[in-house]
Amino acid sequence: MPETHGPSRPMTRTEANALLPLVRGGLKRLRDIRDLVPKLQAQVEIEDLTGRAADGAIRPESKAAMERILGELKGLSRDFQEELESFTAMGARLKDLDQGLVDFFGQVGGEKVFLCWKEDEAEVGWYHPLDGGFRQRKPLEG
After folding, report:
1. pLDDT at 108
2. Of 25, 10, 30, 13, residue with least CA distance to 116
3. pLDDT value for 141
4. pLDDT at 8
C-alpha cells in the first residue's frame, strides 16, 4: 500500500528547513499561475462577446484568439499540476496556497507527525498529528 502522508522516511526539521527556499519559490510560481487564470478567462469571454458578426457567428480572428488563450490556460493548468508534483517529490504537502501553509512528513518523539510551516515564519518550528491540522499545532523543542 503506498504511503499517503509523504515520503517513506520521516524528514528532520533540518531537512525541512533546507527545503524552504524551494518551497517559497514554488508558492510564488503557484500564485502567479493562479492569478493569471481569471485574466485569461476574462479575455475568452470578451472575445466571445465582442467577436461576433451581425449574424451571431464568431469571427475567425476571434475564434483564433480564443483558441490561443484556451491553449495558454491548458498550459497553465499543466504548469500548476507540475509545480504541485514538485512539492510532493521533495516531501512537502501544500495545505493552503493563500496562507502559504505547508506540511512535511516528520517524526517527533517516535510519533509520525507533520512538521508544519507557514510562509511568514522564518523556519519550521511547529508540528501536528497526521490526522490533525493547523489548529492542533504544537511548538517543536529546540
Report:
1. 94
2. 13
3. 84
4. 64
Q: Which amino acid is at 38?
A: P
| Confidence category of residue 9, pLDDT binned at 50, 70, 90 | confident
* Cα atoms in the 13 Å half-sphere on the side-chain side of 58: 14
DSSP 95-128: EETTTTEEEEEEEETTEEEEEEEETTSSS--EEE
Cell triple for residue 129? 498529528
Query: For the residues 52-78, what does the mean pLDDT come to?
Result: 95
Q: How far apart are CA 72 and CA 74, in angstroms?
A: 5
pLDDT at position 71: 97
CA-closest candidate to residue 52, choices 41, 60, 44, 43: 60
